[in-house]
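Figure 6 in text form: structure in, sequence out.
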């Protein structure tokens, strides 16, 4: 199948799945004070790659570059360095490494094996400038063992530690015997599964027989001791699937098994494994989309083989469009064992095709962990029949979790007993972007709920080292620049009963007596005073039930808003009201009394944009709706600069009488000055109107006084009075000064009018209209 056809097909499958991808309910950014993290960092120490707990779980050993460190863990909230060993490569080894075209940064000693050899010593191996070495650490003095020349006791560790620090590796110590999976040469094209140390003879895989492909990459190894059988060591890795006849190279995930009691063959397979078998792991979505590259594996319930489960993180070989698709699949130990007890595959020598072997099988089965040695016939059979025909399918035949935008790199597991007595599996998944996802499995372990995302490392540095310490409830993360200690519980971040229940965190429950979200109590303390719902996360049946609404005096399960404040702004200005995203699973809506939602402008981030006007003043609320429950996330009041438009009587916090304005407390019982302001404004307006009326009236009298005629008009007086002034004319047509009649001073009217003088009246007409009077001396 051509690669482009595969890519197009995978695009369609991914698009079909796009709507079902779960997202973290809440996310904490790096340095967020609400998610406390302890960090140890020193400029002269880098690459904190290997983590190991002491047998009493009081000390954490760390393998870093050129150093071995010890931290005291008696105080869970503190990282205190108590021991330090320097184990650097010698100068001549570094120069020899550089002469082989390696960078100086690669030609250092990167710790790759850090395991308990016994109760008093650690076994440590490092890359040592592409010349791997191993040594011992005395725990009593926390120092390296010395030889008779008072030098560090070190010896070549080819097959135990990789040459290149970039090569993958895995190792497990069983009764003083070291089982490792790594690259066995400088070039990195010879993978090996090796047993060394201890009283049993060293055994390894045979490179000439093709038991492991040259590009094999190891993801983990585990020892399982079954009560009724010999112990077995399981290796998880990925390699090219030679049994697939495609145009493009196809990677497959594998699980291999070797038996602890294997001693190798006498004539055939001398110093080689006689019990090496491998099978394919399948992590597909609906038997279509393949997550075929295994990255890391974690183990749960190793003490109970019937219920032992392996959890692996897988990526896809075909990352379409730059996506980082990833999945988590679980595999039961009994299903793996069933595959190893099934049919074998064999390769046709002529066609090179792999088919199912249908011939006879001897007893005991070749490759089984049985007492005694196999015959040469069985060993010759094992040379060619190391691959099983049956595939190991995930539990429930589907992935537990699928992500399209995140690539998981590491996984750690924990089991938590909830208030109901049910045991829940919690996964901690490291990503390629420096964050950790905390996931709980619900519905009998078939569904995943991502409780939170914690961003830990800068610059999107991938998470490459995880160690979970369940008794102290701590997760340790090793990075290039430091060691991080992350508490598993963070219950105090949930301020209300509704938030506590919606989180569905098995570590947390709502305490009715204290009115707080706290760590789950022991079974003896558990009673009717705690609320939790992991399966459904439904506050309506917990916090809002009659039992949840009856807290102790002084406490409440109500949900106060996370953010409360006042905003004062000028008219026509723009105000942005932010709604805190308490959960990415919730939907948010704004409410403003008197304004329809259609007129609201809300950004993609949920911020409400308001233009300050008289009808937009008042109270605004942001409500969250999650899993059928509504709760108040934010509450604001908008007022103009004079204080109009806010009523503090409706404030949510009636008890404290305080709210927050730009981070500063202010009283929420200020007096309402709106009505006095209106009354004063009306009185002032009336006063101004009266003053204007009096002024106009006085001015009118002055004009009338000036315009009153005291005698005959003259040209000078006419100029002063205007050209169109109607004068009061004597009835007899003559000017009258007092009672004395003088000569006539009036002229005929302009415009051809006719003036009639009749005793004490004057009729002045001009063409039926009043004409202007004019005088001419």
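Output sequence:
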């Amino acid at each position: 199948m051509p690669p482009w056809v595969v890519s197009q097909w995978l695009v369609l499958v991914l698009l079909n799945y796009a709507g079902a991808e779960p997202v973290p309910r809440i996310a904490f950014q790096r340095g967020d004070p609400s998610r406390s993290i302890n960090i140890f960092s020193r400029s002269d120490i880098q690459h904190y790659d290997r983590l190991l707990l002491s047998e009493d779980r009081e000390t954490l050993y760390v393998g870093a570059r050129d150093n071995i460190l010890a931290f005291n863990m008696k105080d869970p909230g503190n990282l205190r360095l108590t021991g330090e060993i320097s184990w650097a490569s010698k100068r001549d080894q570094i120069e020899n490494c550089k002469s082989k075209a390696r960078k100086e940064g690669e030609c250092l000693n990167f710790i790759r094996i850090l395991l308990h050899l016994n109760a008093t010593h650690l076994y440590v191996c490092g890359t040592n400038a592409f010349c791997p070495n191993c040594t011992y650490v005395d725990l009593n003095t926390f120092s390296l063992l010395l030889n008779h020349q008072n030098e560090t006791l070190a010896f070549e560790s080819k097959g135990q530690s990789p040459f290149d620090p970039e090569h993958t590796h895995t190792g497990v110590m069983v009764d003083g015997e070291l089982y490792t999976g790594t690259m066995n040469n400088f070039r990195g094209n010879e993978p090996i599964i090796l047993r060394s140390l201890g009283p049993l003879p060293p055994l390894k895989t045979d490179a000439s027989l093709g038991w492991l492909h040259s590009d094999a990459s190891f993801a983990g190894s585990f020892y399982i001791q079954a009560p009724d059988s010999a112990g077995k060591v399981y290796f998880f890795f990925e390699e090219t699937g030679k049994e697939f006849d495609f145009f493009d190279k196809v990677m497959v995930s594998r699980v291999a098994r070797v038996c602890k009691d294997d001693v190798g063959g006498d004539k055939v397979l001398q110093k080689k494994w006689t019990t090496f078998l491998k099978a394919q792991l399948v992590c597909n979505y609906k038997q279509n989309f393949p997550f075929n590259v295994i990255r890391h594996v974690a183990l749960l319930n190793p003490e109970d083989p019937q219920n032992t489960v392996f959890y692996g993180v897988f990526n896809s070989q075909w990352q379409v469009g730059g996506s980082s698709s990833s999945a988590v699949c679980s595999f039961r130990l009994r299903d793996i064992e069933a595959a190893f007890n099934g049919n074998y595959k064999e390769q046709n020598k002529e066609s090179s095709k792999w088919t199912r072997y249908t011939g006879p099988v001897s007893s005991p089965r070749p490759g089984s962990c049985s007492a005694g040695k196999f015959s040469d016939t069985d060993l010759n059979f094992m040379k060619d029949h190391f691959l099983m025909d049956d595939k190991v399918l995930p539990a429930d035949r589907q992935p537990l979790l699928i992500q399209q935008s995140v690539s998981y790199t590491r996984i750690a597991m924990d089991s938590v007993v909830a208030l109901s007595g049910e045991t829940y599996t919690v996964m901690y998944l490291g990503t390629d972007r420096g964050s950790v996802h905390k996931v709980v499995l619900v519905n009998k372990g078939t569904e995943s709920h991502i409780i939170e995302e914690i961003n830990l490392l800068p610059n999107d540095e991938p998470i490459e080292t995880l160690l979970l310490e369940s008794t102290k409830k701590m997760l340790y993360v090793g990075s290039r620049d430091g060691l991080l200690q992350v508490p598993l519980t963070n219950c105090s971040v949930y301020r209300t009963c509704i938030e506590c229940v919606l989180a569905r965190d098995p570590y947390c429950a709502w305490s009715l007596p204290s009115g707080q979200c706290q760590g789950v109590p022991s079974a003896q303390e558990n009673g009717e005073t705690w609320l939790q719902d992991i399966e459904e996360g439904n506050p309506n049946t917990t916090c809002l039930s009659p039992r949840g609404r009856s807290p102790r005096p002084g406490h409440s399960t109500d949900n106060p808003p996370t953010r409360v404040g006042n905003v004062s702004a000028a008219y026509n200005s723009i105000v942005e009201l932010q709604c805190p995203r308490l959960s990415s699973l919730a939907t948010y809506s704004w409410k403003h009394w008197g304004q329809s939602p259609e007129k609201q402008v809300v950004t993609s981030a949920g911020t409400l944009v308001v233009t300050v006007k008289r009808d937009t003043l008042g109270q605004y609320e942001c409500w969250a709706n999650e899993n059928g429950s509504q709760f108040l996330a934010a509450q604001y009041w908008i007022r103009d600069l004079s204080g109009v438009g806010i009523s503090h009587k409706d404030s949510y916090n009636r008890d404290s009488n305080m709210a927050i304005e730009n981070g500063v407390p202010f009283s929420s019982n200020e007096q309402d000055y709106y009505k006095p302001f209106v009354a004063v404004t009306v009185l002032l307006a009336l006063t101004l109107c009266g003053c204007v009326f009096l002024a106009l009236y006085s001015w009118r009298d002055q004009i009338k006084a000036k315009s009153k005629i005291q005698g005959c008009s003259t040209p000078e007086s006419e100029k002063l009075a205007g050209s169109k002034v109607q004068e009061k004319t004597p009835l007899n047509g003559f000017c009258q000064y007092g009672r004395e009649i003088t000569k006539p001073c009036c002229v005929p009217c302009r415009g051809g009018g006719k003036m009639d003088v009749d005793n004490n009246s004057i009729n002045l007409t001009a063409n039926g209209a009043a004409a202007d009077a004019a005088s001419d001396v």
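Caption detail: The first strand starts at residue 26 and ends at 28.
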